[in-house]
From TrEMBL:
InterPro entries for this protein: AB_hydrolase_3, AB_hydrolase_fold, Carboxylest/Gibb_receptor
Keyword hit for Hydrolase: yes
Transmembrane segments: none
Gene Ontology MF terms in the entry: hydrolase activity
Protein name, per record: AB hydrolase superfamily protein
């Protein structure tokens, strides 16, 4: 029982009667919800019409109820994915627990609000000198912008901590359809601005930051730098709202003194950068992106046709759910917006907004493979970026997120190790310094 059963139906059909029955149950449930939707909408619309007598408002209520059904379907899939990822994290080798969380305010989204940053920190972080600064990898999870959690990439975080000696901050960006485009991109940008504004308290090195992401999160790893570049250069497409000083708690001195087994949810003191509304100074050294969607201008049907094994594509009803949720309302979303489709950005923007080092992995049996390869070629051949990674053979989308991680353990480890090696080079990590720090802490 997991979201992988939904994502890979053909494999499930071959894997036993119980899973086949479960797959058919979910598929029939989705069909039932869709078939009942029109009847319920008609009934409620008619009731409203009889109650108010306002014929011209029926369509308005029909649309809102339709959106409610969309949310119902998304909630069901979130439950399935959460269950699948629970098995994924519990399986051997077990994924690590996060160390603490911070709740931060949204300053870019028009609706405001707040969201969480989930921290995974190297050994010794809580005891290290306040002068010791760690490189940081800001990570974005996958799930079509509608599913998933900041805890999904714990194994990746573990690899980065061990091999790069970096802090990993996984962003719990807000999900569609409750928060459609471009809230995820805004939350991602807000997260980096907040982290860099509070780099001193969090012991982060502003000169050594990288972005990573998986699937939809891989898109964010490429789209967030574009938004940050626009903000830094005051292009005017987005604006940081004034920071509300009155709402900020003054607990920054206590959070880092706690054991890593204690989960904190708090906010830091307001910094001078936030008071003066200044954009923080930082340097993105590397982007690491796994199997991202990069071009929403191309119809899904065309993307499916590029897969040499189309039976391994994500099911149509699932990708439709993603698109309907995130790109809502559909007629208000521009597919060529670089914040949605990084492939649509100009060469000049990509050249200036992206770091020199980029790691891009795509999956051979994935509808997103072709656009990923094309984007990687453009970055390396046309723009002169150092692009590492490549096509991962014999795997489908999200191969590393199977409920049983042992199935692709070797492939996953190889990809993660390659990415970590490039992060180490980009950060110029000196492990002699790391060993010296650990020796001092153990004395």
């Amino acid at each position: 029982m997991s979201w992988i059963i939904i994502l890979f139906p053909n494999q499930v059909r071959k894997s036993g009667p119980f899973r086949l029955k479960l797959y058919l149950f979910v598929q029939r449930t989705m069909f039932y919800i869709d078939s009942m939707q029109k009847k319920i909408i008609d009934l409620l619309s008619l009731s409203y019409f009889r109650w108010s007598g306002l014929v011209d408002r029926t369509n308005l209520h029909t649309m809102s109820i339709g959106h409610w059904f969309l949310r119902l379907k998304v909630v069901m899939f979130r439950a399935l994915m959460a269950l699948g990822m629970k098995f994924h994290r519990k399986a051997e080798p077990k994924a690590p627990q996060h160390n603490f969380k911070i709740v931060i305010p949204s300053r870019l989204s028009a609706k405001g609000g707040e969201f969480e940053l989930v921290f995974y920190v190297p050994e010794g972080y809580f005891r290290a000198s306040s002068d010791y600064k760690y490189p940081v990898v800001v990570n974005f999870h996958g799930g079509g912008f509608a599913l998933g959690s900041a805890l999904d990439d714990a194994r990746w975080a573990s690899k980065v901590m061990q091999n790069v000696d970096a802090v990993v901050v996984s962003v719990e960006y807000r999900l569609a359809p409750e928060h459609p485009f471009s809230v995820a991109q805004e939350d991602g940008s807000d997260a980096i601005i907040y982290l860099m504004s509070h780099a001193k308290e969090l012991r982060l090195d502003e000169s050594r930051i990288a972005l990573s992401g998986f699937s939809a999160g891989g898109n964010l790893a490429f789209s967030v730098p574009l938004m940050l570049w626009d903000l830094k250069n005051e292009i005017g497409k987005r604006e940081l709202r004034r920071f509300n000083i009155d709402k900020v708690a003054t607990t920054s001195r206590t959070i880092l003194s706690h054991s890593k087994t204690i989960y904190k949810s708090t906010e830091f003191e307001t910094t001078d950068l936030e008071i003066t509304q200044k954009f923080p100074d930082f340097s993105i050294k590397c982007i690491v992106s796994f199997y991202p969607p990069l071009d929403f201008r191309q119809p899904r049907a065309e993307k499916r046709a590029t897969n040499p094994k189309p039976e391994k594509n994500l099911p149509t009803f699932l990708t439709n759910l993603f698109d309907e949720s995130f790109m809502y309302p559909r007629d208000k979303v521009d597919d060529s917006d670089p914040y949605l489709s990084p492939s649509a950005a100009s060469d000049e923007l990509l050249r200036t907004a992206y770091p020199e080092d980029i790691v891009l992995f795509t999956c051979e049996y994935d509808m997103l493979n072709a656009e990923g390869v094309a984007f990687g070629d453009r970055l390396s051949k046309q723009l002169g970026k150092n692009v590492y990674g490549g096509v991962i053979k014999d795997v489908a989308h999200a191969f590393d997120k199977m409920p049983n991680p042992k199935k692709y353990l070797t492939t996953t480890d190889e990809c993660y190790s390659t990415a970590c090696a490039e992060l180490t080079k980009a950060f110029a990590t000196k492990f002699d310094g790391k060993r010296q720090l650990h020796n001092e802490l153990n004395d």
